[in-house]
Fold this sequence. Notes:
Structural class: alpha+beta
Bound molecules: adenosine-5'-diphosphate
Amino acid sequence: MNRISTSSFKFFFTLPFVLIISLGVTINAFGKEIPIAKKGILDLRGWNFSEQPAINLEGEWEFYWKEYLSLEDIESRQESKVYRQFPKLWQNDSVGGNLITPEGYATHRLKVILSSITPELSISIPQLYSSYFLFINGDFVTSNGHVGVSKETSLPHWQPQTNDLRVTSDTLDIILQIANFRHSKGGASKNLAIGTKDFLQSVNKRTQAFDLIMGSSLFFIGLFFMVLYWFGRHEKQILYFSLFSLFYSYRSIGSDTYTLHYLVPDIPWILTLRLEYITMYLSAVFFVFYSYHLYKAETSRLFVKVSLGLGVTLIIISLFFPPSVFTNFATPYSIYVLLSFIYLFYTYVLATAYHRIGSKLSLVSTLFLFLTISHTILAYLGITEPVRTLYFIGFQQFFFFQSIILFYRYTLNLELAKKKAERAAQSRSDFLSMISHEIRTPLNAVIGLTNYLISDKPKEGHVEDLRTLKFSAEHLHVLINDVLDYSKLDAGKIEFEMRDVNIRQLAENIIRAFESKAIEKGIYLKLNFDDKIPNRIITDGLRLSQILTNLIGNAIKFTSTGGVTLSLLRVTSSMRKVAIKFLVEDTGIGIPKDKQSSIFDSFSQASSSTTREFGGTGLGLAITKRILDLQNIKINLFSQESKGSRFYFTQAFEISEIQVLPSATEVEEKVDLAGKNVLLVEDNPVNVMVAKRFLSKWKINVDVAENGREAIEKTASSKYDLILMDLQMPVMDGYDASSELRKQGLKTPIVALTASVMLDVGDKVFSCGMNDYITKPFDPDDLYNKIKLQMG
Ligand code: ADP
């Protein structure tokens, strides 16, 4: 892009702090006596390059319009010489009777007189409009493109250069031939400079380094926000900031100093010129979009529409029209951009007044942009020397603050969304808890009483009916528990209770629990336990049991010939850790290939006939997968239809150092419960009735308290061997009552009776000083064993 548009464009983006710094630089520059060329001669005899390493070749140069002249040609000329300011664009001005139009060609000449022969000098040439040849003392030095007398014979090219002079005399006779037949501007807008080789080269390197750092950091900022947009919440302002950064990153290397042309020297001029303009329009439009989405209420929609319309029109012009046309729009567009920027600044002030999120940071950030751009403008106007460090700091700060704003808003929105989701999950979970409690209380009574009736010598004709009643009630119970468990898992509200677990015993217990079912179906059920697995590991035993129970339950359910094998194999182990592979294999009906992934979804079954034939809710595998997901473990499935299925996963455990307490089964036979005194704390009369029937059957004396308060009173006057404590009760609940009893120093074992399957009940129960818990409706054997264990 030409000098004006770049500068003005940056101006839009950047004004204030630069004013101050620029002023300092300007005063400094004016403080020195700087030689200027007069009548084609720049006298540098008083100039010492070791003190001031570079000087611009500025002032009156000899000027020959529409002529390409060599040194000899010029020397042989008799007519009077014509002079013109350099650098100066060909702006339809008149020199020596000629009209100097942007389109044309000319020879410029300057004689530089040095104080001595200074061989270590270099010359730096910016990009000129739009091609040039440079000769010094009659020798060709360098060129950009090709100069000619028409559009066909000239070839534009822009690559700022620094060349060694290897001076052998104290006079430099500079001939500069410039041609322009393509661009809307002709001639030169920037200074040539001579200076010591080291100085000019280091300036050059610094410029390129700045451009590259700027370009690549903007590119990666853009990429980063793009990824954030893509994988995170699809927030528009993030997308637009990303696009703005990406397009602007091109401008850091593809405009002004054209570092890109050093990297890719043969890149076609027309391509880079079009890219330079298009990226300017795109970055401006995306910046407007970005600001609009940041502060929608404060930004006018009309302004956004006008910016978009203008941007799109100019992009189309830049794509399809020749440079002599589209390069005309840079300067007016820069003015539009400048005004837009002032307007956007005003919207930020409004946003700050309304305390919008991140608006103060937006103000600070745009202040930096203002400062940087003002510096650029001042430099363009020639009031101050451009200082690239200032561009660099200004733009870096601008992007830095904008990134902070986006991040701040992003995390804030994420936090709000998270809170909203948590609230929703909480109310859903509360609702389910409440409903399930309501359903479970009568259901407990149904199951409890059915159990009792079955065990109490029922009439011959009633046995089958009672079994069906028991099956249906239990099925309903499993369904409620599954739904509750799933909703809890889905809300991510599960905490794993890591305890010392005897893994061999856990596996054996699960197998034992399913043995009768397997025998009933006439299939085998085997445990294959790798002896190299250490017996005691640290894990959440309940959750692991739940997974294996689900998998084995399914395997048995869907197998009618052959059988089921549970294998636990050691994969790796060290002193402290062991990785175990769990496999549940069956020789059942198998799962069709196309259903293998969907069966892990909630309420999904391989075929619609499954429920009719086998029952089930379609939640077991969803729960299993979720429990494993929460521990970053993948469950795998290999299955062939009508041959069988294999579900497997590998989990790593810490090896436990703790000795395991004797288990329930070990104490089972030692204690007789007859004549023991149990206090049953329960408010629901049906539950009282069910529990009492079993307890009385085991010849236990039962005393009943209706709530926690009554339980405290009763324990003060009577001695009990065990307390069965309901948790949810009026007046005083089971938790408070247990805490109170423990505070009073009561040592009697307390077993909680909970209607909740929520596993976090466990923690709460233990922290209130209770010894164990049992979920209602209790399995009579389970209740019997737990009571025995506590009394032993
Ligand atoms: P449910 O067993 O309650 O229907 P699950 O989520 O446990 O729900 O299982 C989902 C479906 O996956 C089952 O309905 C069944 O179609 C299929 N499935 C699961 N395990 C097996 C297995 N071992 N063999 C055949 N099909 C299975």
